Amino acid sequence: MEPILQIKDLHVSFQVKGGEVKAVRGMNFEVGKGETVAIVGESGSGKSVTAQTIMRLIPSPPSLIKQGEILFQGQDLLKKNNKQMEAIRGKDIGMIFQDPMTSLNPTIKVGKQITEVLIKHQKLSAGEAKNRAIEMLKMVGIKNAEARFNQYPHEFSGGMRQRVMIAIALACRPSLLIADEPTTALDVTIQAQIMDVMKEMQQRLGTSIILITHDLGVVAGMCDRVIVMYAGEVVETGTKWEIFKNPQHPYTKGLLRSMPRLDQKKGEPLIPIIGTPPDLIKPPLGCPFAARCDQAMKICERIDPGATVFSDTHMARCWDLHPMAKEGQSS
Amino acid sequence: MARYIANKLFYTLISLFILISATFFLMKAIPGDPFMSEKKVPPAIQERLYEQYGLNKPVYEQYFKYLGDIAQGDFGISMKKINQNVTDIIKDTFGASLKLGLVSIVVSVIVGVALGLLAALYHRKLIDNVAMVLAVLGIAVPSFVVASLLQFVFSSKLHWFPTMGFKGPMYYFLPVAALSAQPIAFIARLTRSSMLEVLHADYIKTAKAKGLRWYAILFRHVIRNGILPVVTYLGPMTANIVTGSVVIEQIFGIGGIGKQFVQAITVRDYPVIMGITIFYGALLMIARLVTDIAYGFVDPRIKLTGGKGD
Amino acid sequence: MEANQSSGISTPADLKPDDFRKIGTDEKQAEIIQRESISSWRDAWQRLCTNKMAITALIVLLFIVIAAIVGPYIAKWVFNYNYYTNDLLNTNQRPSAEHWFGTDDLGRDMFVRTWMGARISLIVGLAAAMIDLFIGVIYGGVMGYFGGRVDSIMNKFSEILYAIPYLLVTILLLVVMEPSLPTIIIALTITGWINMSWIVRGEIMQLKNREFVLASRSMGAGSGRLLFRHLLPNAVGPIIVTVTLSVPNAIFAEAFLSFLGLGVQAPVASLGSMINDALTGWLYYPWRMLFPAIVISLTMLAFNIFGDGLRDALDPKLKK
Questions:
Q1: Nearest CA of chain C to the CA of A322: how many Å?
Q2: Among candidates B220, B143, B234, which has minimal Cα distance to B191?
Q3: What are the ABC transporter domain coordinates in residue numbering (chain A) (predicted)?
């Protein structure tokens, strides 16, 4: 698969009072053409920061991109200046945000918010842009699109607004769509609709998608591959099936255990992961998950584990997977 | 929208009615009669005066007559200025006050918004700090102190501007500066906090994600939305400037309506006090009404309360 | 792609089997230690203390209050002037060792008069703020607590009243009632309480659906108890801020009335009436205006800055 996005050893920090929050600490992953990759993790794990860093949307300061490369279609986005980034945002990479209630400008008509991006990147006339925008609204499943074009965001429901956001993000047919928790703020029934819209749009336009979420249910329905993040690090990656059927990292296992499933046996409890993630101003020396891990060993607190590879696509970073782990436990 | 306006208009009229009634009955409640302070008046003349001012009729009749007269724009006759109609006094002097007030309003909005915007864009930088110190000073230092200080420094010592009067462009600077100081400070603070809120809003992130240029985002999304709260302040600001001008006109010797008001109060010329009070009241309520309606137009979310449901 | 990561797996040479021994929970690195919990009031106080501007303002305010209380006595003890002592041979004197702030057109000592004026202005400001507080809390509390029809009628009434320009009503009342300290305070509060009532109403409406109130209600607490024991104490923050910010408004309004001759009447003087008196000869005798003007500006400045600081300290969310 030909990657359109490659992220190599990305480190991002935030300058705050009392130090530097190391929010992303050595991310590596890639996204293939037409592929959907999920980045999963709890709040504060660095998944949103990664997404916004790709778009270069985090203001700097306070954020600092310490090192790494973000290769998009072979070009390093971190080396682009503002103007070059403007030409890429919205045109080659689209983005959807978490809260549709606040991500649309309340005082501008919905249609204009779509044509804005078309006029900027595709140099369309106002009339052409309007036609395209209405076409986009229809595509994302908004009925009566011509009338809706002239309405304000407050006249739309949350799910409808998120459809509008998708229309805006995909209006210029970008090759990559970054969806930052696109369904978190929505009702469960609406969530499925939005995911369907995204899937359908992907099939039509062939867009690659990075889906950021903490909801494994969303992942199961839509993604090809999964990246599990914890405390700014990738702890496990694999195809959807590898992650769901054969999770290797205790954190991934924990996430799966805490999620309700349809095939769950009656009376089988959901098990939460106890504790909170580490303070990333002083990230732990060893494995960041050690403090919450019921499998933790002495070494986990000292040295951050390297990757253990199970297949071309499946990797996890945990000392328990090390050959010596079994010996230690038996002694 | 129509219902929204009708609703606002209705309550404005009630407020105005209450003000007029309160004015009338308060004046009637003053012990003694308005001519007591005059030197001895022969009974025949007093009778004629009573006749002229309608004081010999029952109070309720006087009240309805007064309401009727006001509806026709007649505020009665001055008690101290011979043969002077209150309406004429207002007409003759309102021009100067209006010019002063309008210029002050325009200056306040432009300078205040500009200062607030700069402060927000350079948040926590030098410009921000300077602007906010100025704003606190502007809010705290009373306008008459500002006026006296300006007069002392710029006309008495430096002779840059004339001290008194209202005869040409140069006469505007000091009174306008004194009148605008407080509104500028308010608007600057309001604009700053609202712009900061907008700058951190999610939809600005959306706009950035569209790849729009920064100045396009600034003008189309940030300023437009950040200015909305300023619109709500236009009504109170007009009140502030109008009442402020009462004192400022006195300090700078401007023959406006405010000066007439002060004189009337000093000599207790009741019809003039009543007339100007009602005139001011109506003016300010209209300013508020216009502000409310304007806000309904600039902020599409307001329309919802106007009855047109989704 | 992950394949190349596997080469990075660090297997240090000194890895011992013991390293892979499971550790008990007690050995585990403790979770992030909870911050020492402090009450919200102490928290607010600490935030206030870090705000240098607000603390400076508080010190200035205390200084003005103390000076307004003892200032006139100092002059009396040191030079034996009092408030009314006039010396027609020494009118409009510049500030000197004998008359620290100079004298006015009747030869009265400006130092004594300035601090007496400050006293009067503070009394007006504080008394008006207290009456606003009293009426506003009750009216707003009732609106917010009962809600529904009661709220809508009372709220409409206050809106109608509020639409009438504040200073005009005050002027009218004083024309009728003849200005004196009590009538000025009453006239200032005639519509001044409305703002406070809206603040209280908003707070109560927010609070009354919170769990602790529902819990208390479900245990049978009566309306009065709920309002005064549970709701109002939790709305104290915004109320204090509003009071702090309404004092300078009343001081300003009184000064404004002095310009219309409707302030406190001679021989009593407030800062506003002193400034008004000084206005006629001000270009020749600037000190007559300067000292009262400085004191009134400082007072209003300090109240405003301290009020802003209080608001930031009590509601960190609002801080920008």
A1: 9
A2: B234
A3: 5-256
Residue B261 near residue B273 (C-beta atoms within 8 A): yes
Nearest-neighbour CA in chain B from C117: distance (Å):
16
In whole angstroms, give the CA distance from residue C312 to residue C241: 10
Q: Give the whole-angstrom CA distance, residue A174 versus residue A156.
A: 25
Query: What are the CA-CA distances from residue C200 to residues C186, C233, C236 (Å)?
Result: 21, 11, 9
pLDDT digits (tens, 9 = 90+) for A176-220: 999 998 888 888 888 888 888 888 889 888 899 999 988 888 888
Beta carbons of B306 and B1 less than 8 angstroms apart: yes
The verdict on A128 and A239 lying in the same domain is no
- H helix runs in chain A, sequence order: 47-54, 82-88, 110-122, 126-139, 145-148, 158-170, 188-205, 216-222, 240-245, 250-257, 323-330
Tell me whether strands A93-96 and A75-76 are parallel, antiparallel or unpaired: unpaired
Q: Tell me how close the Cα of A252 comes to any Cα of chain B, in angstroms.
A: 31
B15 touches chain C (CB under 8 A): yes
* CA–CA dist A23, A44 (Å, integer): 8
Mention every residue, 6+ apart, whose C-beta is less than 8 A from residue A20. A13, A14, A64, A281
The answer on A9 and A154 residing in a single domain is: no
Give the rounded distance of the alpha carbon of B111 from its chain centre: 18
Q: What angle do CA B91, B92, B93 make, to 5 degrees?
A: 95
Task: Say yes or no: A191 and A216 in one domain.
Answer: yes
Q: Note the pLDDT tens digit of each residue in B139-174.
A: 888 888 888 888 888 888 888 888 788 888 888 899
Residue of C nearest to B277 (CA): C168
Question: Residue A186 and residue A196: Cα distance in Å, rounded?
Answer: 14
C residues 228-287 closer than 8 Å to B (CB): 248, 252, 255-256, 259-262, 275-276, 279, 282-283, 286
Domain boundary among A171, A202, A220: A171
Contacts of A279 in chain C (CB under 8 A): 32
Interface with chain C: mutation pick from B7, B23, B123, B144, highest number of C CBs within 10 Å: B144
Chain A, nearest residue to B300 by Cα: A107
Distance of CA C153 to the CA centre of its chain: 29
Exposed / middle / buried, residue C62 (Cβ in 10 Å: 0-12, 13-18, 19+)? exposed
8 Å CB contact between C185 and C128: yes
Total-model pTM: 0.83
Which fold would CATH assign to domain C58-83+116-318? MetI-like fold (1.10.3720)
